[in-house]
TrEMBL record:
Keywords, in A-Z order: Cell membrane, Membrane, Transmembrane, Transmembrane helix
Name of the protein this chain belongs to: Type II secretion system protein GspF domain-containing protein
Spans traversing the lipid bilayer: 6-25, 65-83, 89-111, 239-264
UniProt lineage: Bacteria, Pseudomonadati, Pseudomonadota, Gammaproteobacteria, Alteromonadales
InterPro entries the record matches: T2SS_GspF_dom
Domain Type II secretion system protein GspF: 127-255
Domain of life: Bacteria
One Pfam family it belongs to: T2SSF
Compartment list: Cell membrane
Annotated membrane topology: Multi-pass membrane protein
Amino acid sequence: MNISLYADIILGLLLIATTWLFYLFHNTRVDDKDITTLSEIVPLERIYPATLIRQAGLSVLRNRMLYWSIKISLVFVTIMMLFEFMSQVSLWTKVGMTISAFLGLDIWLLLKRQVRKQRINHSLEFFISLLIVYLKSGTALSQAFRLSAEYGLAKDHPLADELLLLSLEIESGRDRERAFEDLASRTGVQNLTKLAAIIHIGLQIGSPLVNCLQSQLSSIQQQRQQIVNAKINRKSLELLLPMLLVCFPMFLVLVFFPAAIQFIDLLTVLGDLI
């Protein structure tokens, strides 16, 4: 009895500690301390998914201990729960659940990164439109990015965080090409990679950035229209089967049933004549 009580107390403390560690991990948003290129943190990739964490919008350098602490804590919590409440479960099931607990944080990071990339993609069209307006008014490039992030996007928007870091990089004298490349790699968004390449080419050949941005805006609008058309076509196909299930019985009742009655009547008349 005492052993069971101690196990319950330890399990409760582990659950509290895991929740607290995850809360700290989840709330380490990027700031000006995270102005770093992914090439500088690639050596960590062997033991730490730095790129995944950065693209999920979390601080890389401040989460190294938290990341492994959460994974180890989840494993211990799972093991204790299995032996405490599921002692009759097979060994392979226990091993599978333990491995799932160990990989649970990585799966959550993958989902968080996907949601973040979708939010950035959905806001790019409006952001580029606003950026074009600022550039046409004579605003400097770094200031245009800052103003677009501050007044065009919500404060907690992931694209706003990245653009503010980008403006700080440019204002600090960093090479623009490298800054835009790092922006694309930190987010993992394909459209931002294209935007970085277009701005780089425009700066090299001396083309006005407004024209480059307008071409990228047109490309994003075409992509959005293609996605909308694909969704409409998919919904049309999804609605086709219910319509067939509803309309085909009605077609049988309204068309074939009266014709069948007339055919039966005709056979009856012919039978009487014969």
